[in-house]
Design goal:
The structure is a single chain. The chain is an all-beta fold and 144 residues long. The chain contains no helices and 11 strands. The chain has strands at 8-10, 28-30, 36-38, 42-50, 54-61, 75-81, 84-90, 104-109, 114-119, 122-127, 130-136. A 5-stranded mixed β-sheet has the order 1-11-6-5-4, with no helix packed on it. Strands 7-10-9-8 form a 4-stranded antiparallel β-sheet, with no helix packed on it. It is globular and about 35 Å long.
Length: 144
């Protein structure tokens, strides 16, 4: 696996203790517009793996937990570029558990280019050169 230096982060705060930090990673951060992204309060909708080596993760806040600044844009899109997957495990026995399936357990960052993502059904480790965070009004129709 090719290792990059330190991943670049776009769309996240550059203020100390508000951006993507080791080991918490994209699990909790503020956008460059000041919106608090806390994936524990959102459901994982899915990811799109593009042929260009790009991952797009989608998360949606429930009405109860949407930060006030994100009421008009409750969907979090995290796009990772130059992705290399080192581990992808899906628990097929619990895949149909709709009550817990979207719950995000962790989205850690190693301080360089390594990321570990886990939900109730998925464990994924990968490296990426760049992460871009955006807030959207709605998820792509393929994930709805």
């Amino acid at each position: 696996m090719t290792r990059h230096r330190v991943a670049d982060f776009v769309g996240v705060s550059t203020e100390p203790r508000r951006g993507v930090e080791k080991p918490v990673g994209p699990y909790e951060f503020f956008t460059d517009g000041g919106v608090h992204v806390y994936l524990h309060d959102a459901d994982f909708l899915g990811l799109v793996w593009l042929p260009s080596g790009t991952f797009r993760f989608y998360f949606v806040y429930s009405a109860e937990w949407t930060p006030p600044e994100a009421l008009a844009t409750p969907v979090v899109e995290l796009t990772f570029s130059k992705v290399e997957v080192s581990r992808w495990e899906t628990d097929m026995d619990v895949l149909q558990d709709t009550e817990h399936g979207g719950q995000v357990s962790d989205f850690a960052w190693d301080g360089a280019d390594g990321f570990d993502f886990s939900t109730f059904t998925l464990d994924l480790s990968f490296s990426a050169a760049r992460m871009e965070a955006r807030l959207l009004e709605a998820a792509p129709s393929a994930l709805s």
